[in-house]
Amino acid sequence: MAEESTTPLEPAGDEVLTGHSYDGIQEYDNPTPRWWELMFVATIVFSPIYAIWFHAPLQGRTLADQYQASLADNMRLQFGEIGDLTPDETTIVKFMNDPKWLPVGESTFKTNCVSCHGPEGIGISGPNLTDDNYLNVKKIEDIATVIRDGAKNGAMPAWGNRLHPNEVVLAAAYVASLRGKNLKSARLTEGVEIAPWPSGG
Ligand code: HEC
């Protein structure tokens, strides 16, 4: 069925046929158009420039880096409102009771801490943060110190160079706010029971 009706047509003008014939369809021996070849060469020339510009480990030019930079800018913009927070008792207690800023601490926690402490803070590989027992915390400001410097040789990582100092304080305020929820945890109670947080005001 395929081969029989292949009387080659006379090519128009100076067109050359390849001699291929499939189901009677013949093929001109046309070169790829110049614009196509130029595009092909252009992509080859472009790719190393693109790769070096965006992927060389220089200044952050990738979309992810730009996103991080915008996030940081936005954070600085927002933090302009509260200034530089000191990780002390008064500040942490204040923000523990601040409905506007506590969600910022919560989002820091949800972004960085839930892999070990669980979304509710009940603990996975890290301890339960919703009870009254603590390993490294005796006073409320110790929470900020543990977050900044880490604990147990990095089992609890240090966040001081990964988070804005204000984020450390706000995350500490959020962690402090989890205390007393006493959520059920698969982990055994760890550490010692400590005195209640000082009340705000
Ligand atoms: C890689 C797992 C991991 C991540 C991620 C992690 N932690 Fe921890 N965290 C731990 C472990 C393990 C401990 C217990 C350290 C110890 O035994 O002394 C701990 C302890 C703590 C403590 C002290 C609790 C206590 O009883 O003394 C606080 C507060 C804390 N983490 C907050 C955070 C916050 C806030 C973040 C996110 C910014 C975070 N952690 C992220 C593993 C983690």
UniProtKB/TrEMBL annotation:
The chain crosses the membrane at residues 35-53. Pfam families: Cytochrome_CBB3, FixP_N. SUPFAM superfamilies: Cytochrome c (SSF46626). It comes from the Bacteria. GO terms for molecular function: electron transfer activity; heme binding; iron ion binding. Keywords: Electron transport, Heme, Iron, Membrane, Metal-binding, Transmembrane, Transmembrane helix, Transport. Residues 100-179 form the Cytochrome c domain. Residues 1-22 are annotated as: Disordered. This is Cbb3-type cytochrome c oxidase subunit CcoP2.
